[in-house]
Specification:
By secondary structure, the protein is an alpha+beta fold. The protein contains 1 helix and 7 strands. A 4-stranded mixed beta sheet has the order 2-6-5-4, with no helix packed on it. The protein has a 3-stranded antiparallel beta sheet with strand order 1-7-3, with no helix packed on it. The mean pLDDT is 84.
Amino acid sequence: MATKTEEFTTGNGTTTLAFTTQYINETDIKVRIDGGNPLTFTNSTSPNTGEYHIPNNGNQITFGDTYTNSNVIHIYSETNVGTPTVTFQPGSSIKAADLNKIETLARHGIKESRNEIVTHHLRDGLVTSPKIAALGIARTNIANDAI
């Protein structure tokens, strides 16, 4: 089964939204609205403005704000691969559950590293004329027809 590490959806006019992005820990899920800065994860079941909450092993996000169908919601997993999932001690047995945790962490980390670059990760000056396909942008693609 493929690992789904991100999705784009729209608001539904309420403060809750179902999602299907896979994760290891609830804090691994990140949310951006309309390409802005990430919202803040909270353990509170009643998040404040700019915050969101995911119940333990849940697939529903509760927001501190209401988002409508004009809001683009980017939900993605950013797994912490900087710290060991399991620490083995000399002389201890290797358990299948521990090996599964390590494999899941590696699979998520690899999949996330393969994700396409999204707009908010592009630094100023990275998109230059040589990197744009010929006829790739038309006047209708530019706000106010300002090329």
